[in-house]
Amino acid sequence: MDKSWQKRSMWPALMVLPGYLTQVRVGLRGVEQLSFLKVDSDNQPDVLAWAVAYARWGGLISKNPRVVDMLYKTCNPTLAVLMAHAFHRQGEIGEIGRLLSHLRERRMPIPFDVALLGEGRFPHERDVFPNYPWMARGWNVLADTKYGGFEKAVRPYLAPEFWTTLLDPPRKLVEQLVHHDC
């Protein structure tokens, strides 16, 4: 958090090699970090890697049965956020409601974006976390709720990232985000 985004890694990348998930971090001097993770057939990280890569450029669609099956099998919060945005972009709000119900039936925490997109309002329920969107696009959706003024307070500090990243936000704004005072 103490570096500007220009000094951070330019982008992370995920690749799937036979039997392995490969994570690469690329920065101004080329590859800064490379790691391998053996693919476990239970958690299917290759599906998550594929979904993140496709979502990054707006190409994740909600009709891919492998991704939807993994979403309901694992309830991975990252995949839940990605798919909620995919459902929302394609006008499948009922599917987000189904996902919300599924997570609540399993007594799992609800990612903020899933509740925001599924209910069309600023979520206040105790099982929703954190108190702000995970994805930068979530702030645009939040602007359409009655909390749009709060979205305007955050916008000047949003970094040009896929996931929400704030650059040098004022302390008061951080406290508002953390304590839900908006």
Structure, described:
This protein is of the alpha+beta class. Helices cover 43% and strands 15% of the residues. It has helices spanning 45-56, 65-74, 77-89, 93-105, 112-119, 136-142, 148-154, 171-179, and strands at residues 11-17, 20-27, 30-38, 110-111, 128-129. The strands form two sheets. It has a three-stranded antiparallel sheet with strand order 1-2-3. A two-stranded parallel ribbon has the order 4-5. The radius of gyration is 17 Å and the shape is globular. Mean pLDDT is 79; it is low at 1-5.
Q: Topology as H/E string?
A: EEEHHHHEHEHHH
- Sheet of most strands: 3 strands, antiparallel
Using the CA coordinates, give the radius of gyration: 17 Å
Shape: globular
Low-confidence parts, pLDDT < 50 over ≥5 residues? 1-5
- Provide the residue-averaged pLDDT: 79
Query: How far is it from the N-terminal to the C-terminal residue, by CA?
Result: 22 Å
Instruction: Give the % helix.
Output: 40-55%
Strand content: 15-25%
Structural class: alpha+beta
